[in-house]
Amino acid sequence: MSVSPSPLPLVFFTAKRMLRNASRRKLGRLREPRYMIGFLVGAAYFAMLFMRPGRAGRTPTPPRFPGHMNEILLVAGAAALAAAALLTWLFRKGEPSLGLSEAEIQFLFPAPISRRALLHYALLKAQFPVLLSAFILTIVSGRRGNGAAILTGLGLWLLLTAVHFHNLALAFTKARWNELPPASRRATKIVAFAVAGSALGMLVVTFGAGVLAAASGPGKERFASLGGLVAALQSGPFGPAPLALLAPFRWILAPLLAPTARAFSLALPPALGLVGVLYACVALTAVRFEEATLSQASRRAALRARRGAGRLEALPSEKRRGTVPFALAPRGRPELAIVWKNLLAWNRTSLRRQAAIVASLAAALFSASALLATPSADAAAAIGSAACLALTALLALVTPLGFRIDLRGDLEYATLLRTWPLAAERLVLAELGAPAAVAVLYGWGGIAIALAIAAGRVVRAAFLGAAVPPPPASAPFLRFEALVPVALTVAVFLPSLVALALVVQNASVLAFPAWFPAGRKRAVGLEQSGLRMLSFFGTSLVLALALVPAALLAGPLIFFTFRPLGFWSLPIAAVFAALPVLAEAAGGVFLLARLFERFDPARDLGS
Amino acid sequence: MIEVEGLVKAYQSVTAVDGLSFRVARGEVLGLVGPNGAGKTTTLRCLAGILPPNAGKIRLGGFDLITQPVESRHCLAFMPDEPRLFEYLTVEDHLAFTARMYGVADAAARARVLLDELELAGKERALPAELSRGMKQKLVVACGLLHDPEVLIFDEPLTGIDPGGIRKMKQTIVRRAAAGAAVIVSSHLLPLVEEICSRVLVLSRGKAVLLGTLDEIRASAGGDASLEEIFLRVTGGS
Predict the structure, then answer these.
(1) How far is CA A237 from the centre of its chain?
(2) Alpha helices for chain B (secondary structure H)
(3) Is B30 helix (H, G, I), strand (E, B) or coil?
(4) Distance CA B183, CA A502 (A)
(5) Residue A3: strand, helix, or coil
(6) How far apart are CA A105 and CA A118, in angstroms?
(7) Measured between CB atoms, which of A344, A418, A602 is closest to B89?
(8) Is pLDDT larger for residue B93 or for residue A459?
(9) What is the number of H-type helices and E-type strands within chain B?
(10) Pairwise pLDDT comparison (A401 vs A583), residue with the higher score
(11) B221 CA to chain A: closest CA distance, Å?
């Protein structure tokens, strides 16, 4: 007779192999000089961040709470946990899924292992994210009270494990209810709903009354009376019942909040006992989990595929599917088709409609600005205009980073792009068109709104006889006469800046596709967060260097023309400053075209 | 017309295609067969301009793929084995996009005919996520045929298509060839190749091991062996 294998070696085998293969793949990339350079730059950046003088050797001071505050934290935390648990019992559907992947289902479900072993495999596998979360939270939160970090980590692990076991037990129990005959099922659900609802209601009423009582004292007494919260809770309308209800939640939180190692050791047995009980609930509940596990795996795979394509939102409605940014005639420059397609990837809405919304907003703000007669209206309008301009400038910098509706998104389709009848330069230029259009048009919209707000006050002064007050001496640009040239400066310089930022962002993906993955997705994980920081750092550095010629041109121009022309020297300087930036962006497009020609889908995408 | 001369494509130490030469005339359907790893997909990707060859010449519709890439791609439609569709474009968006990309004047009328022919009528507003694999494949074919290309390349065109769709797809391929297109069909389905291809090219380890009409191939094999038997013999299969 064959014996079902233990799940422990299976879990460790898959985890070890996955880790080993992923590490080998990543290290293998470093054989290429470009990745090695990128790696060294990244390592130097992080070393600079974490090992700079002043940080090294500095011991974080653990927060210290008075004894009664620890008790309050424990009670409040237990109450929050209890409320969350009761809400899940009230509203969560029972889907007894083990959280396995499609591959695990394919290999393990038909394998000669018992259902119990399969369940243990799933429970053990779930420990990896639990341990990782506990580790990260420990790093983030640091030490608590007088306890060591390891005790915080252990407390977090116990809490997260209990939450995982509880949720699984809940799902299994509810699935068992669903297997009951209809009459019994209905009766069971009604009783359970009534019990959970009553318990939640009791908690809310007791805590409401207790907090009100504790906080009713005036001034300093109010804080002092918080220490009596527990007593207030015990003397509430339901007596000691609410605190008894909180007991298991206090047990599981107590190790995490233990201020000393001794308190931790005292809190550990009840917490471990609770975890054991929850485990027993999961392990002893006989329920069919196969269908739910398969269904969840399919859903996760579909979600991953959607994330891979960069879309997390729901599919557009039937009505919206007829909406396009603009009508695309079948004849004309093919580049426009790419811009049209990428705008659709961003948002299924008409450009004309968006322009109408911006115009309506500008008109409404102009009217409000002209009609407001309160004393603070002038200041509000001036600050509003300046804020709008600042926001516009920020948008210009952030938009190219965030919107991957260009080559970064389309490189996933490199095998398709290569078959399009377009020269590489034209294709690259077209690919940059959509995010550039979004950033520039929205930027200009922001400028129009800023001017509309300021224009409202001027019109009011001209036609209603009210005087436009002088601006504060510290902010001369808040004058309307200054706002127009400043706005014009932003409007003139914006397109070249956006173009340059887009070129830099796309170049990083084309040159280092394994480090900055193609596709509309924004990958997650510690490594990816680091890479994004590196990308931001690199983009900022390249942009700063690229703006040097513009600054060298514009600086002297402003210096010599500001006295005779005032703020109007700025837009003139912006025109001259934009020229070298545009030239650099054009050079960048040429470089991107060469990088695209060298881009090998088989090598760089594995497709 | 497709002309390939001395095509070589290597990946680091592996030579996927090694000195391949062949021609496909107008109205001809060439069946490209070979065992896994023989270099079929690499050959097709080189012909489609996706992968730059290391050596050799490729001419599509009279244009050199390396020196006249835009003109040669205008003549071409490549239908890959795995349909690549833009997840955020509907069926009609895909057709509108393709029409503009290739400058198809009567795109609306052509699209209507193709949607009917490929049984996609009524799915105009559907997104790829809502289409079966077979339907996705059909949409790729509809987009490929929209600009009436002179050169058609199909990589495993029948994957995921139901029996009715298979019959229609075969008819579509044969009809396009009859209308004057030069067609290459790569497939592991040897009966399909026997049924619709006028000539067959058998690849093994990146090299052509057989090229000719079915009759010529049978004659060279010394009898009336089936294509499957000949294929297994020349590729070293059991």
Answers:
(1) 43
(2) 40-47, 69-74, 91-102, 107-117, 133-145, 163-178, 190-196, 214-220, 227-235
(3) strand
(4) 40
(5) coil
(6) 10
(7) A344
(8) B93
(9) 9, 10
(10) A583
(11) 36
